[in-house]
Amino acid sequence: MLIIPAIDIIDGQCVRLEQGDYEKKTVYSNDPVEIALDFQAEGAELIHLVDLDGAKAGQPLNLEVVSKIVQALEVPVELGGGIRDLATVRRVLDLGVERVILGTVVLNKPEWFEQAVAEYGERIVVGIDARNGYVAVQGWLQTTEKRAFDLALEMKEIGVQEIIYTDIARDGMLQGPNLVELEKMGATGLKIVASGGVSTLEDIHNLKQLEDQGVYAAIIGKALYTKDINLSTAIRLARGEN
What we know:
- By secondary structure, this protein is of the alpha/beta class.
- It has one domain (2-238): Aldolase class I (TIM Barrel, Alpha-Beta Barrel).
- The chain contains 10 helices and 12 strands.
- An 8-stranded parallel β-barrel has the order 1-4-5-6-7-10-11-12, surrounded by 8 helices.
- Helix 7 links the parallel strand 10 and strand 11 (191-195).
- Helix 1 (32-41) runs parallel beside helix 3 and helix 8 (201-208) packs parallel to helix 10 (231-238).
């Protein structure tokens, strides 16, 4: 299993939110580049970046910081947050970002989205963020009537190969991932990245039991900043080295 550390960015700072609430923000560092380098030094093979300003605004607003992170690292990064047209997809990939995460736009499945999937294949990952099983959009500010499982099946039909599934109720709460929902999502046949709530080594152990169901990676955020999880230890456990 792959462990992916997360860096969420607001105003160029490394922050964490509780359950996606922009009013419940904690700033952990004024230097996301330094945080990214630390994660790389601890053994991270991929780093997850989210432009929270971009998710809210509908267009990336922290690409200068993202570019600095990309240039400083030897490992790849993925980016989500406000990427809502093909021109922006290309712009982000041209910065050196390895994978683009698309969220809100996929609900309407615009023609450019299908073109992006056809053109870039595995470099397009869909983020499905769910609240009580229903898709949330616009930086988690709105909950739709679309079931996350149904959207995942539609994405598979278009050609998407991988999704990041975030349970908003668990995100930033250090309460463990939603294993039941993750197992359901695995039934789609897609590659699944678990996100939200991973806070102990036991959580990683539990997620590893779902590898046969397609859960091949886990994103860890707040628990790394609160020191509830040591990244290098988590990586070794996920690899089966502990």
